[in-house]
Amino acid sequence: MTKINISVILLLSLWFQGCTDKDTWYRGNTHTHTELCGHADSSPEFVTKKYHDLGYHFLILSEHNKFIDPATVAMPANKRSDFILIPGQEITGDQSIHTTAMNIDGLIAWEDEGVPADVVIENHIKRTQAAGGQAILNHPHGGSNLKATDILPAINVRMMEVYNASTRRNNIYKRKGMGFPRTAEPLWDELLTQGMFIYGVGSDDAHILQTIGPNQSNAGLGWVMVRAKKLTADAITEAMRIGDFYASNGVYFKTYEKNSKSYTIEVDEEKTQIMLATLPDWSGLKTDDEAEGYRIDFFGPNGDVLKSEQGSKSTYEIDGSDAYVRARVTHTRKSRDAGFEEHYAWGQPVFTD
Ligand SMILES: [Zn+2]
Ligand SMILES: [Zn+2]
């Protein structure tokens, strides 16, 4: 073979490599349980197959203080090439503080007796990073019941669950006396307003896959869409670390472009309608708002609404007078039983200062 032919082949193979390295959106769940915790109902293999069959691209079997090595989990016989398990653990620590340690290389210690909440959180983060991973503070609004003053001193927190499908259940509201909001958005705004650089995650925290119903914590009700060049544990984790993702419980974006000058959201209506048609009645949040369709809200410091627009596309021009801007899309529809219900997607904040 001549030298020229060899260089042409080399160039072509580089070009093909370049082609595969394009940004792709991957759907994933960072928080789910198995029977290994003693209060969930399915094996790691069953849980894995469930998420695979729901069309997810990645899943973390985030067990309470147990490390499930993905290498030990048998994959579904019909496994697609675009599905991976990312190793992880739900660090289940002191003061009911729980943290997903994603992309770690082994079990992480969870004991921290006699220290304040922020030290517990910081320790979870440090141990996760020492194990090669990134941390997500779980259900701060739910089980952990954390306040902004507990989290703010933990300056290394970069991600927290804004939506946890398990802790939003009506039955759990009742059981716990309506003690916490449906999402952690007010807490998120409090942290952002105080200058914390923190991204919002949506997850299932699924425990029950054998019984489907509103009183269960099932699969497929809260997730993240992550933009990455390839589907590997490292690429997904890095994309989340830098905030290149959004959280959802039903709504998909077609356009999600943000920088220090502007923030543009366009809903992928087709994909959203297909998803909403498959979701159970109880997946949406009941609302008194009867304005059916899409609404895009942009929020700034103190959670103030900077702009609210009906429709599936909106841009907010950022002039720098707000320290941060974040976006949320709401879809409102008639509920199949009675009244109206909402589903959402939560865009990440842009920081201007
Ligand atoms: Zn938890
Ligand atoms: Zn959990």
Bound compounds, each kind once, are: zinc ion
Elements, N to C (H/E) = HEHEEEEHEHEHHEEHEEEHEEEEEEE
Flag low-confidence runs: 170-181
Q: Using only CA atoms, what is the Rg?
A: 21 Å
Beta strand %: 25-35%
SSE-based structural type: alpha+beta
Span between termini? 58 Å
Put simply, the count of helices is 8
Per the CATH scheme, the topology name of the largest domain is TIM Barrel
**Could you estimate the helical fraction of the residues in percent?**
10-25%
| Extended strand count | 19
Mean pLDDT: 90
Please provide a written account of the structure.
Strand 17 and strand 18 (340-346) form a beta hairpin. This protein is of the alpha+beta class and 353 residues long. The relative contact order is 0.12. It has helices at residues 3-20, 44-53, 117-130, 148-151, 170-175, 185-193, 233-241, 269-278, and strands spanning 24-29, 58-59, 84-85, 88-92, 98-102, 134-137, 159-164, 199-203, 223-228, 245-248, 253-258, 262-267, 285-287, 293-299, 305-310, 313-317, 324-334, 340-346, 350-351. The protein folds into two domains: 17-249, TIM Barrel (Alpha-Beta Barrel); 274-353, no CATH class. The strands form four sheets. Strands 1, 2, 3, 9, 10, 13, 14, 15, 17, 18 and 19 form an eleven-stranded mixed sheet that branches. It has a three-stranded antiparallel sheet with strand order 4-5-6, sandwiched between helices. Strands 11-12-16 form a three-stranded antiparallel sheet, with no helix packed on it. The site of one zinc ion (ZN) has 4 residues, from loops.
